[in-house]
Amino acid sequence: MTLTLIVATEKNHAIGYQGKLLYWLPDDLKNFKATTSGHTVLMGRKTFQSLPKGALPNRRNIILTRDKAFRADNAECFTTLEAALASCTASEQVFCIGGEQLYRQTIHYADQLIVTEIEAVANRADAHFPKIDNELWIETRRVFHAKDEKHPYSFYFVTYARK
Q1: pLDDT (tens digit, 9 = 90+) per residue, 109-131?
Q2: Which residue, 45, 47, 132, 134, has most beta carbons within 10 Å?
Q3: Average pLDDT value for residue range 137-145
Q4: CA distance 61 to 40
Q5: Which CATH class is domain 2-162?
Q6: 104 vs 27, 55, 109, 129, 144, CA distance in Å?
Q7: Are 26 and 135 in contact (CB under 8 A)?
Q8: Where are the domains positioned within the chain?
């Protein structure tokens, strides 16, 4: 199994406020869909509940929750990270899609990070991505996307591999 954390952050590593993404960037969302489609997505319960249409289509959805009674259509629920990861096959590509608590738990197991680095600073944020330790991670790809009529901020698609 390979584990990739995929996230969009602003300059201070903020990722959300009150259960919502900080920025709406259509090309970032398209990249997320293209990257994760056909694979497994691992998320916390709050992240799952923030999805407007529930489970993400064309993906195996795994939800990590402390609530043993929590159930969701088209998703598998686990109460421990170990059990969730153990349910994955050796050939499975798993993408952790948040939130903050799950990113903090899984970054130690991750093989790769796919980070959309947004050239902005949020006015308000209550969820953050862990700081990327350059002793552990090496940047392997960086693609610039300029701001335009659909994207109020410039951003980069950046891939990191574990050293």
Answers
A1: 999 999 999 999 999 999 999 99
A2: 47
A3: 98
A4: 6
A5: alpha beta
A6: 26, 22, 10, 7, 26
A7: no
A8: 2-162
First to last CA, the chain: 18
Extract the tokens encoding 158.
């950046």
User: Which has the closest alpha carbon to 31: 6, 51, 55, 49?
Assistant: 6
Q: 30-62: buried (b, 16+ CB within 10 Å) or exposed (e) per residue?
A: ebbeeebeeebbbbbbbbbebeeeebbeebbbb
> What is the rounded CA–CA span in Å between residue 127 and residue 62?
21
pLDDT tens digit string along 23-74? 999 999 999 999 999 999 999 999 999 999 999 999 999 999 999 999 999 9
**In sequence order, which residues have a C-beta less than 8 Å from that of residue 153 and are 6 or more positions away?**
23, 25, 118, 119, 120, 147
Instruction: Tell me the pTM.
Output: 0.97
pLDDT band with cut points at 50, 70 and 90 for residue 17: very high
